[in-house]
Amino acid sequence: MQAGDNNVKSYPRISAKKLRGLCRTGEFSGPTSGLASGHVQANLMIVPREYAFDFLLFCQRNPKPCPLVEVLEAGLFEAQCAPGSDIRTDLGAYRIYEHGQLKKEVSDIRHIWDTCGPDGLVSFLLGCSFSFETALVEAGIPLRHIQQKKNVAMYRTSIPCVPAGRFSGNMVVSMRPVKSRDIARAVEVSARYPRVHGAPVHIGNPAALGIRDLALPDYGDAVDIAEDELPVFWACGVTPQYVAELSKLPFCISHAPGKMFVTDLLTDDMCN
Amino acid sequence: MQAGDNNVKSYPRISAKKLRGLCRTGEFSGPTSGLASGHVQANLMIVPREYAFDFLLFCQRNPKPCPLVEVLEAGLFEAQCAPGSDIRTDLGAYRIYEHGQLKKEVSDIRHIWDTCGPDGLVSFLLGCSFSFETALVEAGIPLRHIQQKKNVAMYRTSIPCVPAGRFSGNMVVSMRPVKSRDIARAVEVSARYPRVHGAPVHIGNPAALGIRDLALPDYGDAVDIAEDELPVFWACGVTPQYVAELSKLPFCISHAPGKMFVTDLLTDDMCN
């Protein structure tokens, strides 16, 4: 927990708007998992306007890893899914990349907006698995990384995304161990949420995805898999960030891992 | 029927590839409804690269009237949904608009491609109701405009689309009279095809859509509505063309009405 986050126990019940306000004033800058419960949280990716068509096309061609929650018009920073928001200040932290390299992490990107001109940047909000995880837990399917207060385990796979313009790369997946008896139910429940990754992309065989060792995730934390469980893989919202890195854009910005944009949308309303 | 179309009786069974070839050589230039049966047909919209992001965003925000079948990379003219195709020659006719005005109808747009440079134009293929109409007929729901060999009746409504960049305007809908006893079934069947407009947007009350007189469609041909029928309205692929016209783009190209791009995709594969 960061300084100023000592009130975090009361945050599951906090409104999305209030949580965004605490990020804006710097009173909160921690991970958002489990906070403002019931609200859709989103990955953020900001690209220069000249790459926005290619990036939008990439998302359109790869809806499972890149489900669009909202795309803001060039230059805008108030999301329609969160009236009164400012995506330049309302996240806990931002990562700035140059030519595919992480340059720095900052808590406010208003100065960059000023530098890039009134319509220089386009912001993409992409669905995040936090939403369907709540639905899984409510359906009686326990999730080990939540029980153990870890970040979910994520892996780069050998599954190519459909390329678009200068964007290409393989899919990143998240993995959750699920008891064999619960797997069909986990598929059914997550399939109801196509705007937050939907049904799993693969069940049971990491090697088929080019994953050599589940104990060595590329992002997040490893968790054990019990005898009566299989690893279940979902398309992951880290994919667009990974692909943006690979594409060596001169410049792009994303949220810092786990510190998502919290929208006013209700997860229940995202359900098919 | 146009000159050279006298073989049209055999066209329901023609392959999509062969039909595109006949368009390319000028041997066929008629409406494509009912031809190469079972294959997805698409609306075509071509915009200059600088408007492509806004137009893609418009489609993404309005998926019912603008369901994307494929977006080609800037400058490309072979659709992935139709290997070997050339979208510059493989449609019966094209309409060229300048500043929102129809300027001319041509059968080949290769010369425009040459003028606009190697990546000057972006082509959008959008779902077309011909696909779900086949499914409705197969489900035992007769469609009067097909029985009467008319074009479907289409109306501009008072329902605003979600704007994007310079694109804004109201939705265009198509109307089909359906017997009251068949309406629920018509909803179920068309809902299975979200990539070709999906379920109806409205049933029964034209005035609620701002339509004053069903006998005076804005596009296509009027049909009678019988005592035991209600008018059923679906979002229509003419919407993006209408919106592009309203937006007064310096320049854009669409297919000529009823003369669609015939893909190799099977309608059955578009089913949810």
UniProtKB/TrEMBL annotation, chains A, B:
The source's domain of life comes to Bacteria
Enzyme Commission no: 4.2.1.-
Quote one Gene Ontology molecular function term.
Answer: lyase activity
Q: Which UniProt keywords apply?
A: Lyase
NCBIfam families named among the record's database cross-references: PRK05463.1
Instruction: Give the family this protein belongs to, as stated in its UniProt record.
Output: Belongs to the D-glutamate cyclase family.
HAMAP family, per database record = Hydro_lyase
Q: What is this protein called?
A: Putative hydro-lyase DFR42_10983
